[in-house]
Specification:
The protein is an alpha/beta fold. The protein has helices at 4-23, 32-35, 96-100, 105-117, 125-132, 152-165, 186-194, 214-232, 248-256, 288-296, and strands at residues 81-84, 86-87, 102-103, 121-122, 142-149, 170-173, 198-201, 238-240, 261-263, 280-281. It has one domain: TIM Barrel (Alpha-Beta Barrel), CATH 3.20.20.370. The protein contains ten helices and ten strands. Helix 3 (96-100) links the parallel strand 2 (86-87) and strand 3 (102-103). It binds zinc ion.
């Protein structure tokens, strides 16, 4: 409890700062992590936005519906959780790893278009966790779309495609990377929120959590969510283990920090434990037929 107190004070202070900042356009504040003394990136609060995304934000009118068709009471159909990273063009020969972590805008558009046409709905991870905990309805026939790391193309490219299809996704943000080159800033993350997307946490600096001492582990897990929550003005309920690395201790700390679910990079398996959820990796060389099989073999 002693450890929680500064965190809570930091949260309250940050929430007040956010409220103030909403009333004073142009003022921006450091995240709660910095207030509480954790994870300060050294970036001044008024530093300009990442130039790649500093252009005026487009007006986002369409807020995707978060509702889904519920399964009959007592039933919990499998929910394929798809794992994306970048949505961009990559030269496969020049950057094989980058290629495998990326889908092109056309690929994403085709995949989401097929999901929609095939009658699949989307469910955010917070709603899926509520279903698994027996605290909310379970979707009858839905997939969960997750985007890791908070790259700029989540805002510039993935968001418009999601909106075109009226689908929702969960975006896992690395709190300490926000606003750095290649990563979204808080205005872009708030725009995702405003469009009905879920903002989840993915640690402060993307370390291998299994290699950390308890103190640092708690900071990486708890402070990232606190910092993001302070900036988006909503609870952050969903966590994603960096690099998919977790242990019993990591799971326990994530649970203790107040999250309701955590995703891994385990490629397949049962959805019994909300804190070790497997996902289906969507890589650059996955064909549309491959994706169709991936989904329909698990949820016809
Ligand atoms: Zn990651």
């Amino acid at each position: 409890m002693k450890r929680l107190l500064p965190v809570m004070l930091g949260l309250i202070l940050a929430a007040v700062l956010v409220l103030i900042s909403e009333q004073e356009p142009g003022r921006r504040f450091a995240p709660a992590g910095a207030v509480a003394g954790f994870g300060h990136s050294g970036r001044a609060a008024d530093e300009p936005l990442n130039p790649a995304v500093a252009a005026p934000l487009p007006t986002l009118s369409a807020v995707a519906p978060q509702g889904f068709t519920p399964a009959p009471p007592g039933e919990r159909p499998y929910v394929p959780i798809l794992m994306y990273h970048y949505v961009r063009y990559v030269d496969r020969a020049a950057d094989p790893l980058g290629f495998s972590l990326s889908v092109t805008p056309e690929q994403l558009d085709a995949q989401l278009g097929w999901l929609k046409a095939a009658g699949y709905e989307t469910v955010r991870m917070d709603a899926l966790a509520a279903c698994m905990r027996g605290e909310g309805p379970c979707p009858l026939r839905a997939v969960a779309l997750t985007f890791d790391d908070g790259y700029t193309d989540a805002f510039t490219t993935a968001l418009p495609i999601l909106q075109r299809h009226g689908l929702v996704a969960t975006f896992y943000i690395v709190s300490g990377f926000v606003g750095q080159p290649g990563y979204m800033g808080w205005p872009e993350i708030r725009a995702l929120r405003d469009a009905g997307m879920e903002i989840g946490a993915h640690s402060m600096t993307h370390p291998d959590l299994t290699g950390l001492g308890l103190e640092e582990l708690r900071a990486q897990v708890g402070q990232s969510g606190a910092a993001i929550s302070a900036e988006v003005g909503q609870p952050v309920l969903s966590f994603c283990y960096p690099g998919g690395r977790f242990s019993d201790t990591v799971v326990a700390v994530t649970r203790e920090a107040g999250y309701t679910s955590a995703t891994t990079t385990i490629q397949d398996g049962p959805q019994s434990d909300p804190f070790t959820l497997p996902r289906l990796r969507i890589s650059g060389d996955l064909t549309l037929e491959g994706l169709q099989w991936m989904v329909t073999s698990r949820l016809p």
